Amino acid sequence: MKKGFFKIYIYISIIFLVVALYLADYLVVPKILNYNHLVISIGLLFLGFIFDGVAWTRILHKQQFKVSYAQGIASAGLSIFGKYIPGKLWVILGRAEYISEKYKYPRKELGFASLDAQFISIWIGLILGALGLLFLDGLQVYGYAILLMFIGLTLVIFTNIFHGLFKKVIKLVLKKELDIPRLSFIKLVRVIPYFLVNWLFWCISFYFLISSVAAQEVSIVAGFGFALAGSLGILAVIAPGGIGVREGILTFYLSLVGFDVELAATVSVVSRLWFLLGEVFIFALGITLRPNGRNAETRQSDL
C-alpha cells in the first residue's frame, strides 16, 4: 500500500458509515426515563472503547511491536468506521495500516496481529453471551450454533493443528502462502483479561442504557445480550457494521429477559445510536492522540 493510504481509508469509511446509517434509518432518539443511568451508561461505553484500544495494543506488545498505548488507541479509534465498509476486514486492516505508517513495521505481520485480536475479542464475547443465555434458559435456540463457533475459534486460537488449517484456508482464498503468527498459551492468558474488561464495560453499559429507557425492572443479565449480539454481529460478513444482525439478536435476547417484542425492538434500535456515540468518541480521541507531523518512531519509549 502507498504511504498516505490510511488517510484515504478514513474518508472512505466515513462515507460508508453515512450511507449505511441513512439506508438503515436507525438513528432513533429514545425517551429517557433515567438520566443518571444514561450518564453512567455513556461513561462505561467510552471506557469500553478505550480498553478495546488497550487490548489491541497489548496484542502488539506480545508480538514484539513496541507501540505506545496512545498510538494503539489512536489506531483503533481512527479505523473504527472501517467496520461499515462491506467485507469486515477493513477495520482489521485499518488499525494495522495506521501502525505500519507510524512505526514502519511490516504490514503483513501487523495485519495478522490485528486478526488475532479480532478472534480473541469475538471468543470472549461469545463466552459472555452464552453465559447470559444459560441464565435465561435460551441456549436451546442458538446454543448449538454458538457452541460450534466457540469451539472453532478456540481451536484456531489455542491449537497448532487448526491454526495451520486456517492458514491453508487463507492460502486458498488469497492464492498465496502466508506465515500467520500465533500467540503462545502463556501470552494469550496475559492478554485475555484486557479483552474481558473491554466486553464487561460494554455489557454493564448496555444494562444501564436499557434501565434508562425502560419503565420496568431490568435484570443485570440483560447486559450480556450485547456481548452475544456484538460478537455475532462481527461475524456477519455481509451486513456492514453488523447493521440489522445485532438488532435482531438483541430483540430476541431481550424477549427472553421478559421484555415485550415492541420494547425489545425499540431498545435494540436505540442501541445502534448508543454504540455509534461511542464510536464517534473513540474516533475523536484518535484524532486527538494522533501526532501531527512527527515521526512516531521517536516516541516508542512512551509505553
Shape: globular
Mean pLDDT: 83
Helix content: over 70%
Order of helices and strands: HHHHHHHHHHH
The count of DSSP E runs of length 2 or more, i.e. the number of strands, is 0
Helix count equals 11
Class derived from helix and strand content: mainly alpha
Strand content: under 5%
The main pleated sheet reads as: none
Q: What separation lies between the terminal Cα atoms? A: 27 Å
| Rg (CA only) | 19 Å
Question: Which stretches are poorly predicted, pLDDT < 50 over at least 5 residues?
Answer: 293-303
Summary keywords:
single chain, 303 residues, mainly alpha, 73% helix, globular, disordered C terminus
Summarize the helices and strands and which ones pair or pack.
Layout: H1 5-24, H2 35-62, H3 69-78, H4 89-103, H5 107-135, H6 139-158, H7 160-174, H8 185-213, H9 224-235, H10 245-257, H11 261-289
Helix pairs in contact: 2-3, 2-5, 2-8, 2-11, 3-4, 3-11, 4-5, 5-6, 5-8, 5-9, 6-7, 8-9, 9-10, 10-11
How would you concisely characterize the structure shown here?
The protein contains 11 helices and no strands.
Structural summary, described in words:
By secondary structure, this protein is mainly α. Helix 4 packs across helix 5 and helix 5 (107-135) crosses helix 9 (224-235). Mean pLDDT is 83; it is low at 293-303. It is globular and about 55 Å long. The protein is built from eleven helices and no strands. 73% of the residues lie in helices and 0% in strands.
